[in-house]
User: Fold these one by one.
Assistant:
Number 1:
Amino acid sequence: MANEQDKEMSDEQQPEEAAAGQAVAPEQTPASVEAAPEPVVEAPEREAQAEQAPAAARAATPAEPVEQLSPKERRRKTRSTHAGSAREPRTPEERQAERDATRRTKAVKRRARRLQERAKRAEHRASTPAAQPLAPVHPPREGAGRVRQGVVVSNKADKTITVRIDVARRHRRYEKIVRSSSTLHAHDESNDAHEGDVVRVIESRPLSRTKRWRLVDVLERAR
């Protein structure tokens, strides 16, 4: 009897061990580990992820450039968005009177500002020391200027004559007389000299772009 009972118990334990082996075996194999199902995400977590995704996309996209408006366009836009009540209709006389009042107010303010600026300038001039005279660019010339004698070849310009200076020199080596001439412009204040006159001119300060001489007197009139 005891042997029969032990045999029955062993037969009952074998199916249980086989079932336990079948339940444990898939967990130990690598294929079963790889094919394990993903964890189920609850609904609140999915909603939080869906909300974070658009925010991240907005942060990644660059901000649109702000439109730069000029002051005139900015004022025009402000006036167009103004939602105040309209003014009561006025007659042309009332409009003109309002403009005159505005002009008088601006004139008073402008006069006060100008008086204030003049007072500031006067105060600044009084507090600023007198300016020292500037030194001359060129040192003063000592002695008398050079004097030349020549023939007037043109007096077409106003208060200006063109004088030809004739020069005759003996050559140093060949002892030959070498004649040359040069022209200059001289200032004639009274237009006294005429073409063909023999005149004397003296060196002076620059009177124009080309005039550096001044007429002294007419030595001989043209025939």
Number 2:
Amino acid sequence: MALKSTIFKADIALADIDHACYTDLGLTLARHPSETDERMMVRLAALALNAHQVQDLCAGDAKISFGAGLSSPDEPDVQLVDFTGRTRVWIEVGQPEDKPLAKACSKADEVIVYAYGPAAEIWWRGIENKLTRLDRLKVWRIPTDQAQALIALAARSMHLSATVQESQLTLTDASGASASLEPQQWK
């Protein structure tokens, strides 16, 4: 018998000062049985860091949402799709291989990777040369300690405030616990 995904709900009050984006997000995250809380929270952080693009790229005529995740490797972890059905932003978290990233670059206007985990630097050194030709691709590194700090905020029902200021994302839960991350751009 196959294990089912665990459903998490997140209400986020987003204040992206860098991009003048202030909005409330009601999100549902389906965590695959093999997905860790760390990966799930990095997906949530990636969505918060890019929510401003709904307005910036599409003048509000788009939706940012989670993809099917680990259960469907041909879909992004987070995606911004405009109302014509065009994928404007495709976001992957972790350490994807070069061929799926090249395929994603052919399907979306922009592809963003948020690499995290202790092996991210090794992954990057091994794949960097293969990704140089992908001009639609951006790669960001989330430091390991910052990604792991997000785990403390994971709960089945999350009420978070998210602030983006000077490229730093700070997530704070209802109890006052918080975690900050500042992605570093590799490509």
